[in-house]
Amino acid sequence: MVFNAHNLKSWIPNIQDGNIAAEIDLRTDAPRYMVYWDGKLLKFQCQDILDEWTENHVGFLIGCSFSFESALTLAELPPLHAVMQRNCPMYRRNNPLCPAGVFTRDDVRTITRPYVATHGEPIAWGWDAVRDLGIADIDCPELGDAPLTADEKPFGSMMGGDIVPVFWGCGVTSQGAVIRANLQGVVMAHAPGHMLLLDVKEDEVLK
Which UniProt keywords apply (predicted)? Predict the structure, then answer.
């Protein structure tokens, strides 16, 4: 099944369905995929999901922190992982999640404009947040690349210094929910750091 403008439905008020992507195939257009079977990871960073996708599957497009990285850079606050051309580190937090049927989701703070449509504001920041979120070692993320400073030192070596860690919710949270729910059947998702690119631009989302 090829996904085109007629298949996509937008929940963003100022973005029409057909403007999300003129032509798109969710099975092949992400750089890498993850495949889960009965809540367990079956394939890691595969190039497509042509064999797994069936006409009974439904796709969801979730916002990503990459959507506001250019705005941070313009404000002279570039994320270090972007400066270092590395995948952003992703951590599992110890905070309980709010139930939603068989799934759970992050109880992130009330999301403020202007990026409410794609991601939202940070859920925590500062070195105390590392402890509060239950991150055992900031230099050892569960997913993505280990964070480095601009001079390629371990990020944790800067604890207490001028560099401040900032934490956002993550689209990979939904994959963790699939695992915790032990969801039966095949579930497919983008691999961490390998998101789908659409036709919608940042300034269109912020209108």
Answer: Lyase
